[in-house]
């Protein structure tokens, strides 16, 4: 009977003590969070309840499982298992605590600063810092777990003796991975690109959605995701429309007949922008920028607060100006010859037939 009660008492006592300590810690964190609303740290630390319970329970059982009077065979297996659980849960707890500290620091910084560019830069940096901490803690935890096995301890001496050669071989084999790793750190602290920036890469326009130590994800305007190694942004040129502020200037080009009413178009553009909510009111203009023997190029210039709004303003201006020209000044649209007449016997060429067709260029 004692062989049954002793393990139950040891295991049950450890579980009860774990739950009691975990409940007390949760109560203290909740009350502290209620008194300090300006700091989200205490509320974030409450997410550590599960790894904290595992650490406490594994530590208590690891220190008292000998009292359970198990056989030597089961004692070794149980001790090894509890050690592995303790190391793994401790690493999990450290990662959760570091994540809470990083998220709390970022939240306080974002609340205190109104500059979107600086906030995005800090967000990118703290995200990559958290990933580095997680990778380091996970690697150390796995290494500590492996060293708990006797076979790994015996092989430690030979592994250390050949560590230099292995390091060289691993460095050559992982050259691309290490390059992306250092490129990720360079992006984070060099302020080249940040989460939330609007970029153009390989002709694709989108927003930086995620930055890791090895890859970067860009969400395009049509909801596609472009994933590329972070080394791309340190080795090739790209457009970052969010550098120096999110506001932008856009252009819309029209190819029109030489008789187009430029002054009336300028007044109509002003009227269109006045009714367009996406226009930020900073600047606008309309001018003839080029001519050809058959047409002239008219450029409309508009501004907006960010890339999304500049796209809305451009398409609105293009659509409404073309519609206005079609309805009120159809003669201003470029003429495209659709027939060609042969010369008559007296050498005179009859007038060719033509058709008015709207043609607009995309700015």
How would you describe what is shown here?
By secondary structure, the protein is of the alpha+beta class. The chain folds into three domains: 2-112, no CATH class; 115-125 and 151-245, SH3 type barrels, CATH 2.30.30.60; 248-356, Alpha-Beta Plaits. 56% of the residues lie in helices and 17% in strands. The strands form three sheets. A five-stranded antiparallel β-sheet has the order 4-3-2-1-5. It has a three-stranded antiparallel β-sheet with strand order 6-8-7, with helices on one face. Strands 9-10 form a two-stranded antiparallel ribbon. The relative contact order is 0.06. The model is unreliable at 159-163 and 352-363 (pLDDT under 50).
At a glance:
This protein is α+β, with helices and mostly antiparallel strands and 363 residues long. Helices cover 56% and strands 17% of the residues. The protein is built from 12 helices and 10 strands.
Question: Which SSEs are present, and which pair or pack?
Answer:
Blueprint: H1 2-35, H2 41-45, H3 49-64, H4 72-112, H5 116-147, H6 150-154, H7 156-161, H8 163-173, H9 175-190, E1 198-201, E2 204-211, E3 215-220, E4 225-229, H10 232-235, E5 239-240, E6 248-256, H11 262-274, E7 279-291, E8 296-304, H12 307-328, E9 335-337, E10 354-356
Antiparallel strand pairs: 1-2, 1-5, 2-3, 3-4, 6-8, 7-8, 9-10
């Amino acid at each position: 009977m004692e062989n049954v009660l002793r393990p139950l008492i040891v295991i049950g006592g450890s579980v009860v003590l774990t739950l009691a300590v975990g409940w007390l810690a949760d109560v203290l964190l909740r009350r502290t969070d209620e008194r300090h609303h300006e700091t989200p740290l205490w509320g974030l630390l409450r997410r550590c309840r599960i790894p904290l319970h595992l650490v406490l329970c594994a530590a208590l059982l690891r220190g008292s499982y000998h009292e359970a009077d198990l056989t030597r065979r089961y004692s070794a297996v149980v001790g090894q298992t509890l050690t592995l659980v303790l190391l793994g849960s401790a690493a999990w707890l450290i990662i959760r605590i570091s994540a809470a500290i990083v998220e709390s620091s970022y939240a306080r910084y974002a609340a205190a600063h109104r500059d979107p560019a600086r906030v995005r830069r800090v967000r990118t940096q703290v995200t990559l810092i958290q990933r580095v901490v997680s990778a380091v803690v996970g690697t150390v935890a796995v290494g500590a777990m492996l060293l708990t096995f006797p076979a790994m301890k015996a092989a430690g001496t030979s592994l250390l003796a050949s560590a230099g050669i292995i390091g060289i071989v691993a460095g050559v084999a992982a050259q691309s991975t290490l390059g992306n790793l250092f490129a990720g750190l360079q992006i984070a602290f060099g302020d080249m690109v940040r989460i939330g920036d609007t970029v153009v890469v390989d002709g694709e326009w989108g927003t930086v959605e995620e930055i890791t130590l090895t890859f970067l994800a860009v969400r395009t305007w049509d909801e596609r995701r472009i994933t590329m190694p972070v080394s791309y942004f340190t080795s090739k040129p790209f457009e970052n429309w969010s550098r120096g502020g999110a506001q932008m200037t856009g252009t819309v080009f029209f190819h029109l007949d030489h008789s187009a009413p430029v002054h009336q178009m300028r007044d109509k553009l002003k009227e269109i922008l006045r009714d367009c909510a996406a226009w930020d009111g900073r600047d606008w203009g309309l001018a003839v920028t080029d001519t050809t023997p058959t047409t002239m190029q008219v450029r409309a210039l508009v501004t907006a607060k960010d890339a999304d709004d500049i796209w809305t303003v451009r398409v609105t201006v293009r659509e409404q100006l073309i519609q206005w020209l079609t309805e009120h000044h159809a003669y201003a649209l470029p003429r495209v010859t659709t027939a060609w007449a042969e010369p008559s016997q007296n050498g005179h060429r009859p007038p060719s037939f033509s058709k008015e067709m709207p043609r607009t260029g995309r700015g």
